[in-house]
Amino acid sequence: MTVSEQALDADELAQLYDGHALRAFRYARAMGLSESDADDVVAECFLRILESRAGFRGDAVPGTWLISIVRNTVLNFLRSGRRRDRLHERLESRAVNRENPEEIAAQRECFVALGEAIAGLAPENRSALALVVFAGLPLRDAAQLEGITEPALSSRLYQARKAVRAQLAARQLLES
Questions:
Q1: How confident is the model at residue 3 (pLDDT cuts 50, 70, 90)?
Q2: What is the DSSP string of 76-144?
Q3: Is 31 helix (H, G, I), strand (E, B) or coil?
């Protein structure tokens, strides 16, 4: 299904939101945004779509098209320096089992370590990981968004996963 060459109507926009807003949010979070900043970015993307919906071409799959808008909005957001929260504050808000203090501490440590490992990746590797793992795009679509070949994206994804695994193993949170 592709975005129609005509302007999106309200039903199509609602379907786009219902089908892809969570993916967009997950991508924004994986790129290092806090929950509130990710919400803002996703809202801004849908506002942009609503305001200029007549100008969109019908040559893209809706999910890929939306993620490309989210990707550009996230990159602009990161460049603008509007990041409000620190990594530890963002990860503190994760839901954990509140009945077992040891489990809370272990989960918090894992979330913090994972967040730090992802945040420490080279930007191109973090972007590849976010597009494929968190936004759920196929390699072909993610490579197209990044403007690189599929093998190049696969290499970035491999490097990202390898680095995250190494960081978690170094903290003894993952078996090496």
A1: very low
A2: HHHHHT-----HHHHHHTS---TT-HHHHHHHHHHHHHHHHHHHTS-HHHHHHHIIIIIS---HHHHHH
A3: coil
Tokens of 62: 């809706």
d(CA 73, CA 17): 16
125 vs 130: CA distance, rounded Å: 9
> Is domain 1-85 classified as CATH 1.10.1740.10?
yes
Find, among 53, 173, 43, the residue nearest to 108 by Cα: 173
pLDDT in tens, 65-90: 788 888 888 888 887 765 444 334 44
- End-to-end, the C-alpha distance of the chain in Å comes to 42
pTM score? 0.59
The CATH architecture assigned to 89-176 reads: Orthogonal Bundle (1.10)
Arithmetic mean of pLDDT over the chain: 77
For residue 64, what are the contacts with CB-CB under 8 A and spacing of at least 6?
137, 141, 144, 145
